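hi! just following up on the protien thing from before. the input was this:
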Amino acid sequence: MTQINPDGTTGTIAIDVFAQSNGQYACQISSSLSDRPDDRMNFYGQTKEYAVAIALERLASRYRQQAEESQNIDWDAVEISDFGDPIEKRYHVILHYERIAKDESKFEAMHNTMLGNTVVENAQISIIEISPGIEIEPLERSGY
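and the predicted 3d structure came back as:
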């Protein structure tokens, strides 16, 4: 029988979205999985969906950072086999980049972002070592 939760960690992530008097939305997200007892974050967006998307991305960013830091991996360390060969490991590399664009159209904003070589340079990059058997499907580029 497979254990669903072998380490006994349970908790909830709650999302509340509130309309504001200015027509925008506030999204409050809280997690009982945090070490801080009153861990609430507020985010804002022009639609409910946008406010939720921003909140979830910030929460995901925090958990990616925690996952990476908890591994405590030396960046330059190379594990060597008994035969003297470097042992390749698997890493989930997550790149996150945001910018506020002032462009003539949505297409121009996307196009100018893709042409600028600063996307990778300015991105938040998380590198998490993963076991060979874990099933992870990396996000693919959207159909633009």
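The two ends are 44 Å apart (CA to CA).
The mean pLDDT is 86.
cheers
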